[in-house]
Amino acid sequence: MKTQVVIVGAGPAGLLLSHLLHLGGVDSVVIETRSRQEIEATIRAGVLEQGTVDLLVDSRVGERLQREGFVHEGIILRFAGRSHRIALTELTGRAITVYAQHEVIKDLVKVRLDAGGKILFEVKHAALYDLDSPAPQVRFHREGKVHEIEAQFVAGCDGFHGVSRPSIPSRHRQEFARSYPFGWFGILVEAPPSTAELIYAHHERGFALVSTRSPQIQRLYFQCDPQDDLKAWPDARIWDELHARLANAEGWKLDEGRIFQRGIIAMRSFVVEPMRYGRLFLAGDAAHIVPPTGAKGLNLAVNDVRVLSSALVQYFKSKDEQALKGYSATALKRVWRAEHFSWWMTSMLHRFHDGTPFQHRLQLSELDYVVNSKAKALTLAENYVG
Ligand code: DHB
Question: Can 200 be counted among the known catalytic residues?
Answer without folding.
Answer: yes
